Amino acid sequence: MTTKAIYKQSFALFFAGILSAVALGGSVSVQAQTESQPSSPPKFTKFQPGKLKIQGNGNPFKPSRMRQSEKPTGGRRGIPDGIDDRIPMLSRDYPWSAIGRVQGTTTDAKSYHCTGTLIADDIVLTNSHCVIDPETHQLSKKILFLPNVINGEVSNERDIATVDQVIYGTDFTGDSTINQTHDWAIMKIDKPLGRKYGYLGWKSLPASALIKNKEKLFFVGYSGDFPNPDKKGYEFLTAGKGWTAGFQAGCSIVKEEDDVLFHDCDTAGGSSGGPIIGLIDGQPYIVALNNAEIKNTRTHQDVINLAVKVSFLDELAGSK
């Protein structure tokens, strides 16, 4: 069987001079807000061990005035069918509030999106391939973070943040193993959104511990194939695919090979950078970072999904 790893950005065309971008599945008003902001390319820095540090200690934070809920549906539930176990993430409560849509523009004027998670006041975690094109090695011209997007809307348009700086793990000029294991990026945004929306912690757990806890993990991602507004129960999600995150409970890390984690969470383009979450002592921690899928190149069927270990965060935070 021939297989190939596929990185999961979700791309769309961007037309210069038009304020709204055309995204996979439709366009909404928040995109006009996105593209109308002044363009300011982020400062990119490749990670060098021991030379770069971020604020944060790996602990989650919930603002005192924000409610916390274990229900990502906010009281509403879709009716997924088949083997797709995702349901819409409709909650504005913590910890779901800390997850958002990464909206980027490439050097050749294409608009794309990924998923990102607040891990400190002004720091968002995502994948390297969400800030650098793995094939051309070009850096993104502009990157925005839209917190807690639901049906194409943020709770406050003034909270749409611009990425000022990026620390990335790989520029995809190395071998396939390096590209995979270092496919992470830390983005500094221009607003301390973590104070308002909260942020998730992280735990660098042994792969054996993750594998042992089968069907105990959660996944959230803005997949470009989800939700389908034509589906019964999803008719109210009119913004289109990729504009409401999909949530899945009960997925697993199934194995580890060469420092690469394999998982069975349901994903698609746009879910790159999505957090794989474990509840530890009742608190949400990122335990792995979704980044790619392996497909059978002959049948184009998904075989398994890949994730990046989060141990690099310990080093960046100075706790390792």
Structure notes:
The chain is mainly beta and 320 residues long. The protein has one domain: Thrombin, subunit H (Beta Barrel). Helices cover 9% and strands 33% of the residues. The protein contains five helices and 18 strands. It has helices at residues 29-36, 176-181, 194-197, 207-212, 311-316, and strands at residues 3-7, 10-13, 43-46, 87-88, 99-105, 110-120, 123-126, 142-147, 161-168, 185-189, 201-202, 217-221, 246-251, 253-257, 260-263, 275-280, 283-296, 302-308. Strands 1, 4, 11, 12, 13, 14, 15, 16, 17 and 18 form a ten-stranded mixed β-sheet that branches. A hairpin with a 2-residue loop joins strand 14 and strand 15. The longest helix has 8 residues, at 29-36. The protein is globular. The relative contact order is 0.22. Residues 11-38 and 75-82 have low confidence and may be disordered.
What is the element layout, followed by pairings?
Elements: E1 3-7, E2 10-13, H1 29-36, E3 43-46, E4 87-88, E5 99-105, E6 110-120, E7 123-126, E8 142-147, E9 161-168, H2 176-181, E10 185-189, H3 194-197, E11 201-202, H4 207-212, E12 217-221, E13 246-251, E14 253-257, E15 260-263, E16 275-280, E17 283-296, E18 302-308, H5 311-316
Parallel strand pairs: 3-9, 11-17
Antiparallel strand pairs: 1-17, 2-6, 4-13, 5-6, 5-8, 6-7, 7-10, 8-9, 9-10, 12-13, 12-16, 14-15, 15-18, 16-17, 17-18
